[in-house]
Write a structure and sequence with these properties.
This is Betaine/proline/choline family ABC transporter ATP-binding protein. The model has no long low-confidence stretch (mean pLDDT 93). The protein has helices at residues 41-48, 71-77, 93-103, 108-121, 126-129, 139-151, 169-186, 197-203, 221-226; strands at residues 2-10, 16-25, 30-34, 56-61, 64-65, 78-82, 157-161, 189-194, 206-210, 215-219. The longest helix is centred in the C-terminal third of the chain and has 18 residues, at 169-186. Strands 6-7-8-3-9-10 form a six-stranded mixed beta sheet, sandwiched between helices. The chain has nine helices and ten strands. The protein is globular and about 50 Å long. It binds adenosine-5'-diphosphate (2 copies).
């Protein structure tokens, strides 16, 4: 589904952020990328949706080299959720969720109906929260809207970069549990970045353990935990 072939990224200032990365994520699989700050996790994610380009190597999505896919088309196949979800401040929760599909050509009423379903799915009652503005939500609730919005275009792939990193531990655990349940229903192919090994183990079907710019281990949670 997503295949990295000898992917490297060197930034303009000479920093090698990712060095000869090769691994494959299967369809419907949730792979967590774990490792210390600065080891190249976010760089990896940004290359998958072409926010930045690899210096070497290539990334395949369903067998297609992504460098040949127009970035706008790519966004329909890939949803992205980051730590500080940038919701539109002047749009309601419902409109935040409905905007992208509407821009992609779904009729407004249909986009809003689907947005309400998605809000429900991520645990936000649309009748209660649909008309609120982002600043009227807690951090945990904003992240839920971010997940709903990423799902709105129904992409087969989700990229999640520390999506629960900015909320307190109790809320975080709650969001993890709900996300796992959601994933069982949706069966998306997910790349999930975290610096928290417990989160990586809890959520991942497999874990990519990053060292400096490299994947040092790529295996199931028991295998990673059992390693010396
Ligand atoms: P992580 O997500 O694991 O914290 P990043 O992928 O953000 O790591 O960063 C990997 C390395 O690349 C770090 O050394 C970081 O400082 C560097 N880096 C990230 N973005 C840039 C950039 N735009 N220009 C130069 N160096 C960068
Ligand atoms: P969470 O545990 O999800 O982070 P909080 O403890 O931050 O939630 O918030 C608890 C409740 O207070 C939520 O129902 C939320 O909607 C409400 N709330 C939080 N901030 C605001 C705000 N600025 N305006 C209105 N309601 C708020």
């Amino acid at each position: 589904m997503i295949r990295f072939e000898h992917v490297s990224k060197r930034y303009a200032d000479g920093t090698t952020a990712v060095d000869d990365l090769s691994f494959e994520v299967r369809e419907g699989e949730l792979v967590t990328l774990v490792g210390p700050s600065g080891c190249g996790k976010t760089t990896t994610m940004k290359m998958v949706n072409r926010l930045i380009e690899p210096t070497e190597g290539r990334i395949l999505l369903d067998g297609d080299d992504i460098s040949g896919i127009d970035p706008v088309r790519l966004r329909r196949r890939i949803g992205y959720v980051i730590q500080q979800v940038g919701l539109f401040p002047h749009k309601t929760v419902l409109d935040n969720t409905a905007t992208v599909p509407h821009l992609l050509g779904v009729r407004r009423a249909e986009a809003r109906a689907r947005a309400a379903e998605l809000l429900d799915l991520v645990g936000l009652d649309p009748a209660t929260y649909g008309d609120r503005y982002p600043e009227q939500l807690s951090g945990g609730q904003r992240q839920r809207v971010g997940v709903a919005r990423a799902l709105a275009a129904d992409p087969p792939v989700l990229l999640m970069d520390e999506p629960f990193g900015a909320v307190d531990p109790v809320v975080r655990e709650h969001l993890q549990t709900e996300f796992l349940r959601l994933q069982q229903t949706l069966n998306k192919t997910v790349l999930f970045v975290t610096h928290d090994i417990e989160e990586a183990v809890r959520l991942g079907d497999r874990i990519a353990v990053y060292g400096q710019g490299r994947v040092e281990q790529f295996d199931t949670p028991p295998a990673v935990l059992g390693a010396p």
